[in-house]
Amino acid sequence: MDLNEKLKDTRLFFPIDPGPTARIGGMVGTNCSGTNAVRYGTMRDWVVNLTVVLADGSIVKTRRRPRKSSAGYNLSSLIVGSEGTLGIVTEITLKLAPVPEETGVGVVTFPTMRAAAEAAIDIVHKAVPIGAVEILDDVQMSVINRAGNTDRTWQETPTLFFKFAGSKHSVKDTVSQVGSIVKARGGSDFEFAKTEAEQKKLWSARKESLWSMLSLRTSGSEVWSTDVAVPLSRVADLVEVCKEEMDSLGLFGSMLGHIGDGNFHETILYDGNTERQKVEKCVHDMVRRALEMDGTCTGEHGVGLGKKEFLLEELGAGTLEMMKAIKRALDPSWLMNPGKIFDA
Amino acid sequence: MDLNEKLKDTRLFFPIDPGPTARIGGMVGTNCSGTNAVRYGTMRDWVVNLTVVLADGSIVKTRRRPRKSSAGYNLSSLIVGSEGTLGIVTEITLKLAPVPEETGVGVVTFPTMRAAAEAAIDIVHKAVPIGAVEILDDVQMSVINRAGNTDRTWQETPTLFFKFAGSKHSVKDTVSQVGSIVKARGGSDFEFAKTEAEQKKLWSARKESLWSMLSLRTSGSEVWSTDVAVPLSRVADLVEVCKEEMDSLGLFGSMLGHIGDGNFHETILYDGNTERQKVEKCVHDMVRRALEMDGTCTGEHGVGLGKKEFLLEELGAGTLEMMKAIKRALDPSWLMNPGKIFDA
């Protein structure tokens, strides 16, 4: 957000849009993504090169500045997403994107999460060039109303939030293609914003999602927020079954996600140890289901401490051993961010 | 080409478009790219996951199938472009792209290589969503005429070949944006093809470039073809000075390239050892200039045997040592494609 504020008179912007507190270093660490990834890819795609201090004290630059290169191993893509376990990143050169000629925001409600998810899948499968598509469940929409951080009242039902970007004509095309797909999947009429102020207002529910949830904490209550990603064809199944389990366990939690990437988040509010155990079951079941669907235990948050147990299940012993061999080669004394991703 | 032939009734295609003899395994090995990279990226962007047999006999799958993941190190991007030096790739899962609603091909001539290159740079800097932009110099155009593999005669002057792809409206927008930029840089009127047959015909000069050059070999003569890439802002400078040197050495060679990626090729015909030494000087000077411009010794062909000496200059000792540490960790006996990229 700071970077884009600095860039605002240049007609360029940095397109990766994670949670508002993210910092560039952390974004490199986790290969973060966020709302714009369906169009612009993830952090890895926007890193030109990195300067890294390795465990032996040597300072390396991963590559030079051409748009593409086939000169040796892709060290940038190895460091991005390695959560600080291979070295300390001291310089980051980023690409920027030109600000699109035309932008827009659209909001559509659906009777069920499945219907909303399936509309998003259709749109991506048809390669309609949207800027972003985000899914928010009924709980999340109600949380936003309760928190009152936006200046309107939202329908408390599964909702898709779209960004549009491109030339004047192409945005018009995109909106009309999205409109007919949404209609076919039982969506409401499109609410559409064109001016910058209207766009900001219409996107505000998405922007305020996490803060709204956090603002509902009472003293002693905690929030567990986590993410998984699955192949696009399976995301409607996963969203539906996860939603059912959260409800059946009597938990107060919301689902929202970068549905166009098959990536979504559960954010669950809990209080005390008994409820924590339920949350743990709910989250672990979500991860296991994602893995059964050939997905990943984390689409953008990273492994950190909390997902280490799932990494073996996801990748298998051989692949994990290959990662550890690289770790040992570059950091034999296991000095760099020890304990993250895997143990020595 | 075989893959896209198989896919032709599915409305999907594989967008990476290297030289016509490329095979999927080699494309993974070199992180190949080709004419469509300016829009669709390189091979790395289209590999979902890989199965790799490592030097110790273990079989690993680099990742699962989600569109994005932050679960551990990015092994796919490490293997892609590693030229077989880290393991034997036995399975490759690729993404496909939907065939665009509308396509087109456009051709524009310019008085100089610099003018043509600068037009291409402007187009990419303004993020005009072209499908491809290729530069061919006057020699290459004349070679195509002499070889006679296309059914027309081309103007023998620097030429840009464009592909357009998108919705009907967006292609119209793109063509008009490209048209005004080209005009401002002194380009000719646009020759434009809309039907599939016309497009094929208009693109034929680009398609036949390499074959045309090869067909001019006489007994005993050889072709040296190589590539470099530089930051987009420097490609016009590089193209101009390389062209001058090739002419001043009296060599018969052409320049063509994926100018939108700052990536281009010299293809030089030579006969005997004296001429070979001139070619070597010409190629080495091109590489050294690319490195001075913060570019790479190879944008898509890979290091192989021929560019090993430049890798140290490009990356520095520390970065090369980091690559070698990874190599040693995964292949301690240096069994995998030994001698490529670097020596033990």
Automatic annotation (TrEMBL), chains A, B:
GO terms for cellular component: mitochondrion. Residues 1-99 form the FAD-binding PCMH-type domain. It catalyses: (R)-lactate + 2 Fe(III)-[cytochrome c] = 2 Fe(II)-[cytochrome c] + pyruvate + 2 H(+). InterPro entries: FAD-bd_oxidored_4_C, FAD-bd_PCMH, FAD-bd_PCMH-like_sf, FAD-bd_PCMH_sub2, FAD-linked_Oxase-like_C, Oxid_FAD_bind_N, Vanillyl_alc_oxidase_C-sub2. Its cofactor is FAD. One of its GO terms (biological process) is lactate catabolic process. Its EC number is 1.1.2.4. SUPFAM superfamilies: FAD-binding/transporter-associated domain-like, FAD-linked oxidases, C-terminal domain. Keywords: FAD, Flavoprotein, Mitochondrion, Oxidoreductase, Transit peptide. It is found in: Mitochondrion. Its main location: mitochondrion. Transmembrane segments: none annotated. One of its GO terms (molecular function) is FAD binding. Belongs to the FAD-binding oxidoreductase/transferase type 4 family. PANTHER family: D-LACTATE DEHYDROGENASE, D-LACTATE DEHYDROGENASE, MITOCHONDRIAL-RELATED. This is D-lactate dehydrogenase (cytochrome). It comes from Exophiala bonariae.
